[in-house]
Design brief:
186 residues, alpha/beta, Rossmann fold, six-stranded parallel sheet, globular, hydrolase, hydrolase activity, Isochorismatase-like_sf, Isochorismatase-like_hydrls
Length: 186
């Protein structure tokens, strides 16, 4: 892997209380949280930029509706002072959030993405970031997905959904890394 010496920001997407205990079925990557914690600790030790992204729903019944406990960050992923927080209302963290401008003002052109869920907010954010010209890395064992029916009605496992989403991104919008590889970026 070629290490780019430009500043690299860590985007931690939707690691909120509403994501722990989702009723969407069994998920893949049970060690994702541990991998995200390790990456977050490394970014903090190296004083690199960290952006915490939080979903705020437009649907009152959602656990991510303002004022609900589900909106709050999980305890292991609470932002520290000086770490940027972005709130979004759609899966893509760049839409109507100011994230692109925040990165450009700080001359950050490279991002590492972790969080949930691979085929939703992770994929949407990575696609836009790639289209905007950022060098994007998605940490395959720092994200996870849930089972889902495909368009033909076939039930797909969380691992299949996760793998297809990563395949959609790989090479065109992002590079796919392991947490161990991401730790070697600096």
């Amino acid at each position: 892997m070629v290490v780019d010496k430009d500043p690299v920001a860590l985007l931690v997407i939707d690691m909120q209380q509403g994501m722990s205990g989702m009723a969407s079925g069994e998920r893949n990557n049970p060690s994702a949280e541990s991998n995200i914690e390790n990456l977050l600790a490394a970014w903090r030790r190296n004083r690199l930029p960290i952006i915490h992204i939080r979903h705020i729903s437009r649907t009152p019944e959602s656990p991510f509706w303002p004022g609900q406990p589900g909106v709050e960050f999980q305890l292991h992923f609470l932002p520290l002072a000086g770490e940027h927080i972005v709130e979004k209302n759609v899966p893509d963290a760049f839409v109507c959030s100011g994230l692109e401008r925040w990165l450009h003002v700080r001359d950050i052109r490279q991002i590492v993405i972790v969080g949930v869920s691979t085929n939703n907010s992770i994929e949407a954010t990575a696609r836009t970031a790639g289209c905007l010209g950022f060098k994007v890395h998605v940490v395959e064992d720092g994200t996870f997905a849930f089972p889902k029916r495909d368009f033909s009605g076939v039930q797909r496992s969380a691992s299949e959904v996760h793998a297809m989403s990563l395949a959609n991104l790989d090479g065109e919008y992002a590079s796919i890394l392991s947490a161990a590889q991401a730790l070697k970026m600096f």
